[in-house]
Amino acid sequence: MAMKKLRIKKDITIRKRVYNYIREQILNGTIAPNERLIESKIAKEIGTSRTPVREALHSLENEKLIRSIPSVGYVVNPLNREDVIQICEIRALIETLAAKWAISRAHKRLIRDLTKNIEEAERAVEEGNIVRFIDIDSQFHEIIAKHSGSARILELCQTLRGHMLRYRTQSIFLKDVVLRAIEGHKRILEAIKEGDHQKVNEAMGFHLEQSKIDTIRYALNESI
């Protein structure tokens, strides 16, 4: 692991910036599962003192992204099947509620923004820009959460999406997985257009179930 020097913005605390930085490195796979995190080394590499790094690592341990091992230090938690299952099932509950509220609150804007998102996702795939696709793919669900009008739902969706990103980056580079993701989003959008909450629930559940299967199969190399 090699971290580049971190630029600290004055309007955000150093601890928060260091926490966000290390967390992002873990979620996007730059810091791999089971990799050891050495406090002094991280502080030197990103150009800060050890105190904010220590505080950040403690917060990441509370978030279950890393664990502390006596005489070893902190180690990044491995990817595991049960975590994927729980994340997908929790997301299904939260995001169907988000869709219900978003339909009631901003139906036309929701349809417009989701349609644009799918068009951009398809364009990214056509251009072979899978890195861009991953970003657009995750924004689809965030759009629904934002239009729900609930800051709590948005926060939960962003947190769960971040955790899922650890797994998705290992599987989303396969074309079949990409196409299934887009098709799942189209199915959700059609249900939203109809304003049928039951169809939205079914479409969201189907999409996240497929995401769970693909992630376990291709990121964890396990059968489902």
Please give the number of β-strands. Answer: 3
Q: DSSP helix count?
A: 8
* Highest CATH level, the class of the largest domain: Mainly Alpha
- Give the radius of gyration: 19 Å
| Strand arrangement across the biggest beta sheet | 1-3-2
The portion of residues assigned to helices is over 70%
- Given the helix and strand composition, which structural class is it? mainly alpha
Strand content: under 5%
Rough outline:
globular
Structural domains: how many: 2
Q: Output mean pLDDT.
A: 89
The CATH homologous superfamily of the largest domain:
GntR ligand-binding domain-like
What fold name goes in the CATH topology slot of the largest domain? Answer: Four Helix Bundle (Hemerythrin (Met), subunit A)
CATH architecture of the largest domain: Up-down Bundle
Order of helices and strands: HEHHEEHHHHH
Largest sheet: 3 strands, antiparallel
Low-pLDDT ranges = none
The rounded distance between the terminal residues' Cα atoms is 32 Å
